[in-house]
Design goal:
9-stranded mixed sheet; 12 helices
Length: about 475
C-alpha cells in the first residue's frame, strides 16, 4: 500500500521545526565522525538537557528516583541514557537503540612506510564497503593516539579549511585496461587502500635514514604537532573518513548528503526524542552502541553485557535489584531497533521490489524483518507488536512506511534487533531510508529525519 509523501502534509510551522532538526543533525554529523566524537557530543547535549553521570550520582551517595536523568558511558564508544519513570522498572522500559559506528578505513598498528619517495599509512577497512568507492577522494583522519604514560592525544586532520587532506590513489584510465576488466569487488584490493601522507624528504639525515627521508619528515611533523613517536601507533585508534561537512542536497535543499548517516541519522534522532521527554510514566531509555557494522561484537557492541549490567546498576541504585527483577525489566521492555533501511533508487530498480520498498520523503520505515536467504539472521517482529507500533505512529500523526531490504535473494543485511530480542523483549527495526548506503557520502531526506524524531518520541510516550 502506497503511503503519502510526508512533504505534502507539512504546515509552515512544521517546516520550521523540520529545518531546526535538520540543522542540529548536520552539526552532529560534522562533529561526530568517530564513535568517540559521537559520545563526546551526545554527553554534551545530554548534560545541557539535565542529564548527569550515573557514576557521579552513585559516588555521591544519591539514590535514583522517578524523574532522574542519568547516563552511563563504556570505553568512550557506547552509552545508555535513562529518564526514570514513575512505573516499576521491572514492568519494563521503552527503549530506542541505534549504533554510532560507520564503515571506514582504520589505520593499522604498524602503518607508516615509504615507497619510491612517497609516504603512506597502511589501512584495514571496517565494515561492508565497496572498496572502489573509497579512492581518489579527499580524506580526513580522526581518532586518538594513547602514549605509554596514558596521555590521550586527539588527532583531527583534514576538516579545517587550512588543513591538508589525505588521499588514496587510483590507476589512471589510460593504463587501467586490465583493472577495468576485473569484477567491481576486485578492481581495488583491500591492501591497496593505503593513505598517501607525504612526499617531501627531510634534509640533513644520517646515511642510515636517508632511504626513508620522506617517512622521517612525516614522523617529524607528527612529533612537532602531537608529541608522538612512531611506536605510539601501536596504541592508536585512527580512522580515515571522507573529509568535508554534511551538506544540503538538491536544488530544493530537501535532502542531506554526508558521511556516516548509517546509523547516526537514527542515533541522533533517538537522542533528540529522549531529551525532549518530560516526566515519563514508563522509564525511557536511549542505547547507542558500537561495532554493529562488524557483527555487534566486543565490549562496546550490542552482544556485550554492557546494557544488561547497566540496567542492573540502575535497579541497584533504586534499591530494587534482584536477578529476577533484572530479567523482568528486560523481558517486559519494548524496543525500536533504530537502524536505517535501503531507500528505493530508480537508477537501480532491478534490486528492489517496489511494493515493499522504502522511499525517500515518505517517513520513517518499519522493517518487520531483515536478514538474507530466507530471513536468516533476522528478528522478525510479531504481528501484535507491529500493530501496536502502527497505532502509536498513527495516533501521533507520524508518517511511516513498511519495507524489506531489497528483492528476495538479491542480498540482505542485519541489525541489532535479534540480539535485544534474546531477552524476550519485543523489538522491531525502525529507521530512515538511505540512498548509497555505506558509500563515503550517503543521502537522506530531511522529511524522513524529521519523521524519525517524531516517531521515536511517540514511541517513548506510548509504547
Amino acid at each position: 500500500m502506497e503511503r503519502p509523501n510526508a512533504w505534502l502534509t507539512y504546515s509552515d510551522a512544521d517546516m520550521k521545526d523540520l529545518e531546526t532538526v535538520a540543522k542540529k543533525y548536520r552539526h552532529f554529523l560534522n562533529v561526530g565522525k568517530t564513535e568517540r566524537e559521537c559520545i563526546t557530543q551526545i554527553v554534551k547535549e545530554a548534560e545541557e538537557a539535565g542529564y548527569v553521570s550515573f557514576e557521579e550520582k552513585v559516588k555521591n551517595g544519591e539514590d535514583l528516583k522517578a524523574g532522574d536523568k542519568v547516563y552511563q558511558v563504556g570505553m568512550q564508544k557506547i552509552i545508555a541514557l535513562y529518564h526514570i519513570g514513575e512505573d516499576d522498572l521491572a514492568q519494563g522500559m521503552n527503549i530506542l537503540c541505534a549504533h554510532i559506528d560507520s564503515p571506514r578505513l582504520d589505520i593499522k598498528q604498524n602503518p607508516l612506510y615509504e615507497d619510491t619517495d612517497l609516504a603512506y599509512l597502511d589501512t584495514h577497512y571496517y565494515g561492508g564497503v565497496k572498496k572502489y568507492q573509497w579512492v581518489a577522494l579527499p580524506m580526513a583522519m580522526h581518532g586518538v593516539i594513547v602514549k605509554k604514560d596514558g596521555t590521550v592525544v586527539n588527532v583531527t586532520v583534514g576538516e579545517d579549511e587550512d588543513d591538508p587532506v589525505l588521499y588514496i590513489t587510483d590507476l589512471l584510465i589510460h593504463l587501467a585496461g586490465q583493472q577495468m576488466a576485473k569484477k567491481a569487488s576486485e578492481a581495488v584490493e583491500g591492501e591497496k587502500l593505503d593513505i598517501l601522507i607525504g612526499s617531501q624528504p627531510l634534509k640533513d639525515l644520517p646515511d642510515d635514514k636517508k632511504k626513508e627521508a620522506v617517512k622521517e619528515n612525516v614522523l617529524r611533523i607528527l612529533n612537532e604537532k602531537y608529541g608522538v613517536e612512531e611506536e605510539d601507533f601501536l596504541s592508536a585508534e585512527l580512522e580515515i573518513v571522507p573529509a568535508g561537512k554534511a551538506r544540503d542536497c538538491g536544488l530544493d535543499r530537501s535532502m542531506i548528503a554526508g558521511y556516516g548517516q548509517d546509523d547516526r541519522v537514527c542515533a541522533y534522532t533517538s537522542l533528540l526524542a529522549l531529551l525532549e521527554m518530560e516526566a515519563p510514566k514508563r522509564t525511557s531509555c536511549c542505547l547507542l552502541v558500537d561495532k554493529e557494522e562488524i557483527g555487534s561484537v566486543g565490549a562496546t557492541g550490542m552482544q556485550s553485557h554492557f546494557f544488561e549490567n547497566s540496567v542492573a546498576e540502575v535497579l541497584d541504585a533504586m534499591g530494587q535489584y534482584s536477578d529476577l527483577r533484572l530479567r523482568k525489566a528486560l523481558k517486559n521492555s519494548s524496543m525500536l531497533s533504530s537502524d536505517v533501511s535501503a531507500g528505493y533508487d530508480p537508477a537501480f530498480a532491478e534490486a528492489f521490489e517496489k511494493k515493499n520498498s522504502a522511499y525517500l520523503g515518505r517517513g520513517i520505515v518499519l522493517n518487520k524483518f531483515t536478514g538474507a536467504r530466507g530471513k536468516s539472521g533476522s528478528n522478525d517482529a510479531n504481528a501484535e507488536y507491529v500493530a501496536r507500533v502502527r497505532r502509536i505512529f498513527d495516533d501521533h500523526k507520524v508518517c511511516f512506511q513498511t519495507a524489506e531490504l531489497g528483492k528476495v535473494d538479491v542480498g540482505g543485511g542485519g541489525t541489532i534487533a535479534f540480539i535485544a530480542a534474546l531477552y524476550g523483549m519485543e523489538v522491531i527495526d525502525s529507521g530512515v531510508s538511505v540512498l548509497s548506503m555505506h558509500a563515503p557520502w550517503e543521502v537522506t531526506s530531511k522529511a524522513d529525519v524529521y519523521e524519525a524524531k517524531k516517531a521515536y518520541k511517540a514511541f517513548l510516550l506510548d509504547a
